[in-house]
Structure formats: C-alpha cells, structure tokens
Amino acid sequence: SRKLERPMSRLWDNRLMKNRFGQVRSGWIILITMAVYYILALVSGNLIIELLRKILIATGDINPVTGEFSSVAEWFDNIFLPVAFQILTELLMLAVPITIWRLGMKHSVRVMGLDSLKGKKRRKDGAAGMLLGILNCSVIFLLVLMIGKGRVVSNGLTVSGLTFWWLLTFVLVGIAEETLNRGFLMAVLRRCRNVPVIMFVPSVIFGLIHLSNPGVTFFSVFNIILVGILFSYMFLKSGSIWMCIGYHITWNIFQGVVYGMPVSGLQIPGIITTQYAESNLLNGGAFGIEGGILTTIVTLLSFIFVWYYYRNSNYDFLSDSEKPEVLQ
Hints:
By secondary structure, the chain is an all-alpha fold. It has ten helices and two strands. The protein has helices spanning 2-12, 26-58, 71-104, 120-147, 161-189, 195-209, 218-238, 242-258, 293-309, 317-320, and strands spanning 150-152, 274-276. A two-stranded antiparallel ribbon has the order 1-2. Helix 3 (71-104) packs parallel to helix 5 (161-189).
C-alpha cells in the first residue's frame, strides 16, 4: 500500500496541482466546482424529466406509443418545467460553491462578499444596486420603444401565478449567479494577487455560462462579460456582492416580468408585453437587450456611478483573505 501511496502523493504534491504555499491551485478548485455543479444539474434534471414522464404515462396524459401529449402534459412541458429547471439550477449554483468554500476550503462566507445584511451599509449597497438595475433597464426599454423598433402589444396589465414564480426565480438567479461568479470565483482567485485576472476570468465564465441560451450572439456574450466586469468592480471596491445581487435581480425582473422582453433568450410572461418589429443592434433581437449596444453604453456609464459611490472606500480586496479572522 505504501508503494501505491508514493505515486499518488507525487501526483498530488507537485507544482501543477499546488502552489508554492502548498495550496491547491485556483484553477483546479474552479474546474472541480464547475464540474460538480454541471454534473448535479444534468443528473437531477434528467431524473425529474424521467420521473415526471412515468407519472404522466401512468395517468394517461402521455401516450407512450404515439407520444401524444394531453393539455396537462403540455402544461408541464411548456410552463412547469422551464421554471422548475431554472429554480433547480440556481439552487445548485448557490449550494455547490458555498459547500466547497465552507466545508472544503474552511473559509467564512464573508470572504465571498456574503456578509450580513443587518448592517446599514450593506442594505444601502443592495438598495443602490437595485435602483441602478431598475434605472438602466428602464432607460433602455424607453429607448427601444422610441428608436429600437420596439412596441408594447399588450392591452392591459397581466398578472398571474407565473408572475410570482418568475419573481422568485429571478431573485434566486441574482443571488446564485453572483455567489458563484463573483463571490466564489473572485475569492478563490485572490491568491493569484492579480487584479485583472481576478476581475476578468469570472466575467468570462459568466459570459460562457450563457452560450447555450436561445438567440445567443457574439455581442450578447460580450455584453454579459462587460456586465460581469462591472459586478467584479463592485465587489473589488466594497468586499460585498450585495450591490451586484441587487442590480442583477431588478435588471432581470424589470426586463422580463415587468416589461415582457426576452431575458437572455428566455421568453418571460410579463406584466406588459414588448415585441420588436425587427431585430437590430439596439434591441438585441431574440436574446433580449443584453444583445444590444444600448446595454453596452449604460454598462460603461455605470462604472462611473460605482466609482463615485465607493469614492471614499479604503477596502483592500487583495489583503482581505489574509486576515486571520476570516479563517475558521
């Protein structure tokens, strides 16, 4: 057994796997985390589909010979599953990095920027992010109506049970995606002590996560990466991801639930419904306004707001992880 242990030890204890301080390299931690997340999402998703299929066959809502769906099966396929899968993936996106960070790396979640909202400053940061998300989305919405070939086609305000489910979903999306892409990835990359890498790598991963979304384009991925860099800048200046979370939540809610525009390619039943007479560089086409140049402009302007908002901040992002109180 000792002979077997030595090759394994040599395989694990080398500069490819660990840095000069004996720590597992950030890239491996990120790779393992993303692999665990995607495997769990794939397996659990397939299990839900198979279980639901068996139930609907047993109830006669799916004909196993012809594959014909009843109205109940159509509802599950078109309405229930998209929301359920979105909630499932966001819960996994939240649980996996926090579990690895707390149990595997034995650090406090505060280092991930998830410090308590009990403090007045963090509540203020979250509120500022929410207001900025509402403002930016609303400005783009109005510009799309005026010059981007967009028009409101609904005759009145539409609120249903799905409205509340998508509200919940987008709250989870904002918390989960920022916990993974900003909180976890940036905290793991701190040890490289290279600010451009810390900001850029999580933002690129954030953009790549959206590659499988309907209607994706090169420009939409570019904009998502740019927004990711903006969120990284918020975390870098404050040590908190609550402004990122606030912005992410209200941007998605107002884009999809309120204004009825596509959200990263997903068609959401909105309180009002907005359609495009034609797809162009202003409205972003089928992917939504993240695929348009108006998002590029407001995102760049938002860097000025964040810089001004945190103008008096003395927070040092690189040294924070070295404070002894963050290790537990």
